[in-house]
Write a structure and sequence with these properties.
Elements: E1 4-9, H1 17-31, E2 35-40, H2 62-73, E3 76-82, H3 90-99, E4 106-107, E5 116-117, E6 122-129, H4 134-139, H5 144-157, E7 159-167, H6 175-189
Parallel strand pairs: 1-2, 1-3, 3-6, 6-7
Antiparallel strand pairs: 4-5
Helix pairs in contact: 1-6
Length: 191
C-alpha cells in the first residue's frame, strides 16, 4: 500500500529546475502507487512574515490552513528548494514560520527543556539545488541550509528526514546532467 506524500516546492518560480524535480518526483510517486498532494509556495497567497513572533496570534490565510491540513494528512513530506545565500529562500522560511506553529508542530511544557514533537511519525525527503558544488557546500560552508531544515525545523517537530539529495552546481549544468538529476528524484520517489 502506498504512502500519503506531500510535496512542497519551496522555489518561488514554477519554471525552475526545482519545479522540474518536484514534478518528476510526483509522477514517479504516483506510478509507484502513492497518493500525492503538492504545495507550490510561489502560487500560495500568504504573508511570509511572522509579524509579532509568537507574542500575538497572526490569523492564518486560507492557503496556510490548507497547508496545515495537508501536512496532517501526509505520512511523508518531500521538500524541494534551492540554496540561496547558504540557506533556504525567504518564501520557504516564511512558510515554516507561519505554518509550523506552537500547538500545531510542537508544544512546550513547563519544566521541560524540549518541546513535544506534534508531527512525529512522519518522514521526509529533501531535494536541494545549488549553484555551489555540493562538496564545497558540505565541507567548507558546513551545510547550514540543510541543517536548518533537517534538524532545527523538521526533526524539532518530529518529522524524520530519511534522504537528502543535493544537485549542483545548477548553473551551467548540461541537459544530460539535469536529466540524470531528474532520474535520481524519480528513483527516490518510487520507493
Amino acid at each position: 500500500m502506498g504512502k500519503r506524500i506531500l510535496i512542497i516546492l519551496g522555489h518561488p518560480s514554477s519554471s525552475s529546475f526545482c519545479a522540474a524535480l518536484a514534478e518528476r518526483y510526483a509522477q514517479s510517486a504516483l506510478r509507484a502507487g502513492h497518493e500525492v498532494r503538492q504545495l507550490f509556495l510561489g502560487n500560495m497567497d500568504f504573508d511570509p512574515v511572522l509579524r509579532e513572533g509568537y507574542q500575538q496570534v497572526q490569523p492564518l490565510e486560507a492557503d496556510l490552513r490548507q497547508a496545515q491540513a495537508d501536512i496532517l494528512w501526509a505520512e511523508h513530506l518531500t521538500l524541494v528548494y534551492p540554496i540561496w545565500w547558504g540557506g533556504v529562500p525567504a518564501l520557504l522560511k516564511g512558510f515554516f514560520d507561519r505554518v509550523f506553529l506552537p500547538g500545531f508542530a510542537f508544544k512546550y511544557r513547563e519544566g521541560k527543556a524540549f518541546p513535544d514533537k506534534l508531527l512525529h511519525g512522519r518522514s521526509a525527503h529533501l531535494l536541494v539545488t545549488m549553484d555551489t558544488p555540493p562538496w564545497y557546500y558540505r565541507w567548507i560552508y558546513r551545510m547550514p541550509g540543510l541543517h536548518q531544515v533537517r534538524k532545527t525545523t523538521l526533526a524539532f517537530c518530529g518529522i524524520e528526514p530519511h534522504r537528502t539529495l543535493t544537485f549542483g552546481p545548477i548553473l551551467g549544468a548540461s541537459a544530460g546532467q539535469r536529466e540524470a538529476w531528474l532520474l535520481q528524484a524519480q528513483a527516490i520517489a518510487s520507493r
